[in-house]
Amino acid sequence: xxxxxITVNGTVYDVTVEEGTGSxxxxxxxxxxxxxxxxxxxxxSGAQGAVxxxxxxxxxxxxxxxxxxxxxxxxxxxxxxxxxKMENEVVAPQDGTVASINVTAGDSxxxxxxxxxxx
Length: 119
Prior knowledge:
By secondary structure, this protein is mostly beta strands. The chain is built from no helices and eleven strands. Strands 4-11-9-6 form a four-stranded antiparallel beta sheet, with no helix packed on it. A four-stranded antiparallel beta sheet has the order 8-7-5-10, with no helix packed on it. It has a three-stranded antiparallel beta sheet with strand order 1-2-3, with no helix packed on it.
């Protein structure tokens, strides 16, 4: 078995590759460890949102149009997420007040990352 560190689009992966016969029959695919993510930005103290807005896909935050304390309605655009050269709107899942915005323009995010929280 050989261990490698691979960087794909700025994300670092530790992989272990099992040496085999190369026949392909019954060969297992290499296992990739979870990517090493940067530490999330801290929310303002006392801002603990009950509703989390998660990233639907891996990508890059292009712009943030909401701010902490702002009242939003269901469907209001909170930020724009670029993935595969497409701009995707990240919207409020329900009416509420923005408790925290956990990303800034230019940040790369993984699937499921908490982008914002609402009360």
